[in-house]
C-alpha cells in the first residue's frame, strides 16, 4: 500500500521580534517568514526559528507548529483580507492535512527528519495582536481549525519540495479534532478524557491539563455519592 503524502506549501521561521499593539510593545516569534533553502530541523526547532515565551511555546513537544493551507480560504473570507504565508505563526504550512485526519501519536517522514503529532495547537493572544483582531483566538478555537504540533523523533534537513509522508497511524486514532472538542466543548466527558490520556505520545502539558480535569470530575462524583 502506498503511503499517504502531503505537499509542503511553505516552511516558515523567525526569531522573536518586537512589534507594537495598542501602544504596547510585544516580543514574539509569531512573525515568521518563508524560507526557500533547505533548513535543518533539530529536536527543538527549525534552524533560524525561536520563541519568546518558552513557558507556553517551544520545547520538545512543540518543536514544529503545523497549519493546513486548506483553511486559508475560509479565514480570508472570514477576515476579509488576503493572508500571507505563516499567517497563523506556523512553521509548516501543508496542503491536504486537516485536524479531522491527524491523530495524536501519528508519525511522519519530513524530509530527512521523522516527526510525531504531540497535541493540538492552542491559539493564543499573540494571534489577536498579529492580526489586530481581539477575538481571533476564540474564533480559531470555535472553528476547530487550530493546527497542531510535531515533536521531532529524528533530526534532519527539510526542503520546501520535501514531502510530508505518513509512516504510522496511531492505533487509538484520537484525532486533533476530537481532542479539541473535549477540551473546549465537551469538558465533562470523562470517557473522552480517559481516551485521550491513554495516548502515551500525548504532550506532557496536555496530559497534565486533562489529568487535572479528570481528577476534578472524579472528585465531584465522589462528593455527590457521599452526600
Key words describing this protein structure:
M1 Pyruvate Kinase, Domain 3; single chain; 27% strand; two-stranded antiparallel sheet; alpha+beta; 227 residues
Can you offer a commentary on this structure?
The chain is α+β, with helices and mostly antiparallel strands. It has one domain (5-170): M1 Pyruvate Kinase, Domain 3 (Beta Barrel), CATH 2.40.33.20. The chain has six helices and twelve strands. It has helices at 72-79, 125-131, 136-143, 176-184, 190-197, 204-226, and strands at 5-13, 17-21, 24-28, 33-34, 39-41, 64-68, 92-95, 107-110, 113-120, 148-154, 156-158, 163-168. Strands 1-7-6-10-9-8-12 form a seven-stranded mixed barrel. The mean pLDDT is 91.
Task: Please specify the SSE layout and strand pairing.
Elements: E1 5-13, E2 17-21, E3 24-28, E4 33-34, E5 39-41, E6 64-68, H1 72-79, E7 92-95, E8 107-110, E9 113-120, H2 125-131, H3 136-143, E10 148-154, E11 156-158, E12 163-168, H4 176-184, H5 190-197, H6 204-226
Parallel strand pairs: 6-7
Antiparallel strand pairs: 1-4, 1-7, 1-12, 2-3, 5-11, 6-10, 8-9, 8-12, 9-10
Helix pairs in contact: 5-6
- Return the CATH topology: M1 Pyruvate Kinase, Domain 3
The pLDDT mean sits at 91
Helical content band: 25-40%
- Kindly provide the radius of gyration, computed on alpha-carbon positions and rounded to a whole number of angstroms: 18 Å
Describe the sheet with the most strands.
Answer: 7 strands, mixed, barrel
Structural domains: how many? 1
How would you summarize this macromolecular structure in one to three sentences?
It contains six helices and twelve strands. The chain is α+β, with helices and mostly antiparallel strands and 227 residues long. The model has no long low-confidence stretch (mean pLDDT 91).
Amino acid at each position: 500500500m502506498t503511503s499517504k503524502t502531503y505537499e509542503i506549501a511553505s516552511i516558515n521561521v523567525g526569531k522573536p521580534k518586537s512589534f507594537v499593539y495598542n501602544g504596547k510593545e510585544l516580543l514574539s516569534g509569531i512573525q515568521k517568514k518563508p524560507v526557500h533553502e533547505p533548513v535543518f530541523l533539530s529536536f527543538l526547532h527549525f534552524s533560524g526559528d525561536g520563541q519568546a515565551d518558552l513557558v507556553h511555546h517551544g520545547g520538545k513537544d512543540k518543536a514544529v507548529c503545523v497549519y493546513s493551507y486548506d483553511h486559508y480560504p475560509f479565514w480570508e473570507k472570514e477576515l476579509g483580507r488576503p493572508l500571507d504565508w505563516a499567517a497563523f505563526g506556523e512553521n509548516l504550512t501543508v496542503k491536504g492535512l486537516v485536524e479531522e485526519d491527524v491523530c495524536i501519536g501519528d508519525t511522519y517522514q519530513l524530509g530527512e527528519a521523522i516527526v510525531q503529532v504531540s497535541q493540538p495547537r492552542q491559539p493564543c493572544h499573540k494571534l489577536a495582536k498579529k492580526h489586530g483582531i481581539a477575538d481571533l483566538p476564540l474564533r480559531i478555537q470555535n472553528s476547530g481549525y487550530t493546527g497542531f504540533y510535531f515533536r521531532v523523533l529524528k533530526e534532519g534537513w527539510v526542503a520546501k519540495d520535501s514531502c510530508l509522508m505518513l509512516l504510522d497511524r496511531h492505533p487509538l486514532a484520537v484525532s486533533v479534532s476530537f481532542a479539541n472538542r473535549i477540551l473546549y466543548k465537551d469538558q465533562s466527558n470523562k470517557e473522552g478524557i480517559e481516551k485521550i490520556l491513554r495516548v502515551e505520545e500525548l504532550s506532557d502539558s496536555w496530559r497534565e491539563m486533562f489529568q487535572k480535569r479528570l481528577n476534578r470530575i472524579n472528585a465531584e462524583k465522589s462528593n455527590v455519592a457521599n452526600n
